[in-house]
Amino acid sequence: MKISKLAGIFLLLPLTALAGKAERDMMSNDVEPAVKAATTSLKTACGCDVKFNIKADSFQTTDDMFKIKYFASTIKDNAAAYCTDPASKKAICKMKSIEFSKAASTTLTFAGSKVTATTDGTSQPSWEMLTREVDK
After folding, report:
1. How far apart are alpha carbons 104 and 125 in whole angstroms?
2. Exposure of 81 by Cβ count < 10 A (0-12 exposed, 13-18 middle, 19+ buried)?
3. pLDDT tens digit string along 33-43?
4. Among candidate residues 97, 96, 85, the one with its CA nearest the CA of residue 46
């Protein structure tokens, strides 16, 4: 009896990882446009092409997905004010990609040309975290 209950639980677990309509809609209607706006803002204000790599499979709920939108929005909202001089543009343009996923804690690191950002689901990386890393 216990084995059959366990088997049933294990069969249902993968289904929870599949995105439902609300999650797919959130990704296409809110997240993807926010990411596109952030990349456009970085290109226009700073002159650099930065690719976003969203680890979508790590975001299971629409609440989690809002963190992607907020992080992208903070980039869009701050890029023009930051990239006002050649040194700032050079600092930001060291980034070639931003990988964003959900993890146990909210972090942001910069190594080589890649920013690795994570959210714990309750907070997201800030613009200040990003600029602090690229300005090093």
Report:
1. 13
2. exposed
3. 999 999 999 99
4. 85
The residue type at 5: K
Phi/psi region, residue 111 (left: phi>0; alpha: psi -120 to 50; beta: rest), is beta
Answer for the pair 95, 47: CB distance below 8 angstroms, yes or no: no
Task: Report the 10 Å Cβ neighbour count for 54.
Answer: 19
Distance CA 91, CA 104 (A): 28
pLDDT tens-place string over residues 78-134: 999 999 999 999 999 999 999 999 999 999 999 999 999 999 999 999 999 999 999
By DSSP bridging, strand 114-119 and strand 97-102 are parallel
